[in-house]
Amino acid sequence: MQDSVRAGDSAEAPACTRLLQNEESMPTLSDEMKAFIVKRLACFDTPSQVAAAVKANFDIEIARQHVYAYDPNSSERISPRWRELHAATRAAFLRDAAEIGIAHRTVRLRMLDRMTRNAEAHNYFALAAALMEQAARECGGFYESRKGSEPRPPAITAAALTAPAITAPAITAPAVTAPALTALAITGPAPSAPENPAAAVPAAR
Question: What gap in Å lies between CA 109 and CA 71, rounded to an integer?
Fold first, then answer.
């Protein structure tokens, strides 16, 4: 009986040891780093993006699994302190979306104006026309008041980005050959048809 219990303990030992080794291999994070991770997750950053941001700002490499530990939606072991910080940051992020420049119509119109001028300067007239149409929709409040039943505006395709310059078609006259000039000099211009066909017929006597 003791041998069987001892054998079972030895079978579970590697799994427990591996878990302890993983926890010990995780770097120790300060409260500043933990708050940074929680705030980035609250702003909808992915664990991979948060890990890269921690490396860039604190020069510490952490795994995605370590980041998951501070996400209230993925971990139940997060402390109430970080859970409350996550909730407050998420609410502020959603509430302050108006502070993002591109969320304002005026900023979007300025950007569209700049892109339209650049497209026209480089002879991308199809792209310029599409940008002007989008600007007209912005001025009319199309994107703010558009309902689900209304059609969506046409997307700016890659073909418009690479459209060649629109040039006027060349007007070319038919070539006049030497034999035609010679025949014209000999015979003279072709007689024109009379305006009144009846006048060309002599009256019967």
Answer: 38
